[in-house]
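Morning run. Coffee first, then this:
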Amino acid sequence: MASFSSTRDDKLLTPYSIMFTLSPQQGFALLMMLMLLLMGALLLAPLTPARLQAEREQLTATSLARAKEALIAYAVSYGDKHPNKVPGYLPCPETATPATPADEGSAESSCAAKNISVIGKFPWKTLGLGPLRDGYGECLWYAVSGSHKNNPPTEMMNWDTTGWLSILSPDGAGFIVGDSPDNRAAAVIFAPGAVTGSQNRSAVANAAVCGGNYNPGNYLEASGAANNAVVSAVANALSVFISAGFDNGVNDRYLAITPQEIFAAIEKRSDFSATIGSFTGKVGNCIAAYGSRNAGGSGDKRLPWPAPIALADYLANASYDDDIDRLSGRLPYRVNNSKTRTANGMTGTNLVIGVNCPGPWSALDDEWYKNWKDHLFYALGGAFGPGAATPSICPSCLSANGIGSYAAIVLFAGKKLAGQKRISLADKAAISNYLEDRNSANDPNAGGNSDYRNSPATAGLNDLLYCIDSGLSVAPCP
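And here it is:
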């Protein structure tokens, strides 16, 4: 190892060699002084255009990421903070001049009509944040798909609900986000950047924090047929934005949120799987309760017929109407045909879901049914159909994994797997786009004695099954 002398010789002493000649206290003090000098030099270094731009881009990226995180957290916890609501919804933007200074940064309580997308300023106060700014000091903007805004809400919110926002590449030749319905965005957050063209960002009243005004065209740009400042005024219509670049006159930066990202976060909740299981079991109890009210008395435990797989409208509860002599299909909501055949004594309505469900069935259960009903399927044992000649007597019964003699089985279709599509009416009419293995192949369960498959979720099977036994007890299938 080289030795260092405390006396000056003909060798050049570096700052580090000098430190070795000093006491520990003197060396530390010198090191701190050198660090301060270095920091000062960096601060005094020329702020080149490239360095300034890099810092602006970094600040913009950080703000966009924080905004995205906050919006997803809002969707995940929506049901916790809004009684009798399911998770998945996003807030409205702030679209108009605040009524008071204290209202700045707050989401509108309601925005546009049902299923119409909306654009406005990012609602930082509603999300419990301070104002998030881009590298030019501008507060963020935000577009929310009509399918995911919280008010007025869409008819059905679940992990198959598609967004209606897309983003083109800078040249407008292809989509970066939304090249198919499955990967459209539920929301897009914009950083507007510096003023371009004739944009006028003069201030309005009661917006002192972010400043400026509420005209999207004064912040966001257009290129070709795509316009970042405009969303479609038509319900369930695609809105097309464009990315900056290729000298297209757009300097907006963005970050998209897809429905898949929202539900990936929801699925991580420790209570989500349990909630789905509890809900499916409650629906099974609704079906079983029907069998205790038939005119034939305690020996007549016939259950309602299923609804068809293919429906004209999957959003309306009333579309899920029982179908005479069907032994597998969707879980029915209305059972007027079955009620006539069994002279069922259900209370004043033909609805098997809701008022005629045994307790506890709550307003929250109604909301889960409204939003997840297209995931519910139902198979009926031949001996327990309304048209059975000798009702409620096996062996014309169902089994699960080769076990049991069940009156019926309620199936909840898990998240769509590889190859499954649930977008169009034709997609939804195919049971194989919801159920897998024997659970799909058994349809139409013509003999009423099919064997269904229940197992832990895998890449090829993720259906959840609840079995109704011959005594009308409901439990997870074996």
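The longest helix spans residues 49-76. Good start to the day.
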